[in-house]
Design brief:
This protein has 380 residues and is an alpha+beta fold. The chain has 15 helices and twelve strands. The radius of gyration is 22 Å and the shape is globular. The two termini are 28 Å apart. InterPro entries: ABBA, Prenyltransferase_CloQ, PrenylTrfase-like_sf.
């Protein structure tokens, strides 16, 4: 670490201490953490860095899964992480209701508040990504879903759902999938999704990007749909042989597996056309093919009732409202212009979903003012 040239003083002892805790941290990330340490010192009204400034910066800004890589932190030093300013869940609840009105769907406010309260630590955490998702489906089939993706707190979202009556076991293999995945693969965080009318719906299990799970290992999970075996060879042909996330849908009894561009590489429109066709789906318009070719990640939906893939999805990030493909459907403009978002950053994610029942667009507003969108771009 180089000598600090700023109003915050780093003694040689503190520089060496910081280096001892972060021996393998990339230089770009190291500079970011130095900024966090300086902010801690300024918050104390101090001009010199202390050990506690360093430790607090590391623990507050390092996802739970990676904290095991921070070495040499004295066990007798206690860091208060509760001082982070929490999000106002009453405001979030009101904004969910506003978003539902924009999407022209109903909203069960009592149900929304119950789920926000069950996952209060996650939804209120200022570093946890939160988004609202809707679709271009006809109004009578449209929904508004609220979700978080959390790598900052240790929790068991499935147990919390069961214990609080949000989810009831049905005797279906989907009941076992969460713990089968958790016990076999490294998991760095979880996401939860709920519908504003239908309640608890999904859990995402996020696998560290540098530790992707080979499809061959996923097919060995006893509760995973057998239909995956029918596609391993074909998906591998397109370098889609490693996954970085699993989604479990408890309402529709289905599961998603996620592939990222980092591993499968750039997709040409010809490659996308071939992939869609070989997977047994009608090839959509050139306009949609072009969107799919620029996807950040791709995912397939499997069920336990069919030997075929149920849906193909190509996911993109819009760094501001102008990048939302409003020309594809008039509803996209209405929602992206008016969706409530915390802060000034209006970022979105959108997905081209291909299904035998018809194609549509999923549009997700990043309620956390860029946390979700930025994390996707930085990670995948």
């Amino acid at each position: 670490m180089s000598e600090q040239v700023c109003e915050i003083l780093w003694s040689k002892k503190m520089q060496e201490y910081f280096n001892s805790l972060t021996p393998n941290m990339p230089e770009g990330l190291r500079d970011r953490y130095i900024g966090y340490v300086n902010e801690n010192a300024r918050a104390r009204g101090a001009s010199e860095v202390t050990e506690l400034d360093i430790i607090t910066a590391l623990l507050r800004n390092t996802p739970v899964f990676f904290r095991q890589n921070i070495s040499n932190i004295p066990k007798d030093i206690k860091v208060d992480l509760s001082s982070l300013t929490k999000r106002d869940l009453a405001l979030m609840s009101d904004d969910i209701e506003k978003a539902a009105k924009i999407a022209e769907v109903g909203c069960n406010k009592e149900l929304v508040n119950k789920i926000l309260n069950v996952y209060e630590e996650q939804f209120s955490h200022p570093q946890v990504a939160v988004s609202f998702r809707t679709t271009t489906k006809p109004v009578e089939k449209r929904s508004l879903d609220v979700r978080y993706v959390d790598v900052w707190t240790s929790h068991d979202p499935y147990a919390m759902a069961i214990e609080n009556g949000l989810l009831v076991k049905s005797g279906h293999p989907v009941d076992n999938l969460f713990y089968d995945i958790k016990s076999n693969f490294p998991i760095m965080g979880y996401g939860v999704d709920f519908g504003v009318l239908n309640g608890f719906a999904k859990i995402w299990m996020r696998i560290p990007t540098h530790l992707p799970v080979p499809l061959e290992k996923l097919q060995l999970i006893p509760s995973f749909p057998d239909s995956l075996k029918n596609y391993i060879s074909l998906l591998s042909k397109y370098s889609m042989d490693r996954i970085i996330m699993v989604g479990i849908d408890y309402i529709h009894k289905s599961t998603n597996i996620y592939f990222v561009k980092r591993y499968y590489g750039d997709l040409s429109t010809e490659t996308v056309t071939s992939l869609i066709s070989e997977l047994g789906f009608p090839v959509p318009s050139n306009e949609l093919i072009e969107e799919c070719a620029h996807a950040l990640f791709f995912y397939c939906t499997f069920t336990w009732d069919s030997p075929k893939i149920e849906r193909l999805s190509f996911h993109r990030v819009a760094h501001d409202q102008s990048q939302v493909p409003v020309h594809l459907h008039p509803f996209l403009e209405k929602y992206s212009l008016n969706a409530p978002i915390l802060g000034d950053k209006r970022k979105f994610m959108y997905t081209v979903a291909l299904s035998p029942k018809g194609n549509y667009i999923k549009l997700e507003s990043d309620y956390s003012s860029g946390i979700m969108a930025d994390a996707l771009v930085e990670t995948y």
